[in-house]
Design a protein that fits this description.
about 0% strand, single chain, mainly alpha, elongated
């Protein structure tokens, strides 16, 4: 009887392995880890913004609209509770990535406009913050790319035969991923632009 149960256990184990069970376990762990890193890097960027804004505000003639948009975009992004469960909610995930995208755009505009102000450009604190922000944008790109790959592998297993049967029995469902538009952006250099704005650009 003991040999029978041992044999049965081996058969079940091999069956689960062949039907994608191990793939679900490993990719789910990869998704959790990569998502945590995405959040860490977004948080790091968010933490840099108050000092960046304070430094730029020292320039009396600086575009107030640009500053306001950065502050508002940060507030919107941080208002979304980025819990681990968010990746299982497509609608909430879409709102999260949209808010982060708006913040990226606002920051890019701020840095481009700052090139029109010599006092800001020569400010050592601003230069250091700008370098930290550039490094963070690079890390965000890497973290998001890892997340995308992990989710793609997981979702393929959920949809493919025979692993889809395992997914159905165990309740595994596809997870939200960055949109195709965002995936294209990831293949490009970071959005942050540190080049001097073209002459004649509005202040």
């Amino acid at each position: 009887m003991r040999k029978f149960f041992t044999l049965l256990l081996c058969v079940v184990t091999l069956g689960l392995s062949g039907c994608g069970y191990n793939t679900f376990q490993s990719t789910d762990e990869q998704i959790t880890a990569s998502w945590s890193e995405v959040l860490n890097q977004y948080q790091r960027r968010s933490d840099l913004i108050p000092n960046l804004v304070s430094t730029v505000k020292g320039e009396s003639n600086f575009e107030q609209e640009t500053l306001v948009k950065v502050v508002e975009a940060r507030a919107k992004a941080t208002s979304i509770q980025a819990t681990p469960e968010l990746i299982n909610n497509p609608e909430a995930f879409k709102k999260f990535q949209t808010a982060q995208g708006e913040l990226s755009g606002a920051l890019s505009r701020l840095l481009v406009v700052s090139e029109n102000y010599p006092n800001i450009k020569s400010n050592q604190s601003f230069q250091e913050l700008r370098a930290q922000l550039e490094g963070t944008e690079n890390r965000i790109t890497v973290a998001r790319n890892r997340y995308i790959k992990a989710v793609q592998e997981y979702n393929v297993a959920v949809r493919s035969f025979p692993s889809n049967l395992t997914a159905m029995v165990l309740g595994y469902k596809t997870k939200a991923n960055f949109s195709v538009e965002n995936e294209k952006e990831i293949s490009k250099p970071p959005v942050v632009n540190f080049e001097k704005a073209p002459s004649g650009a509005s202040k």
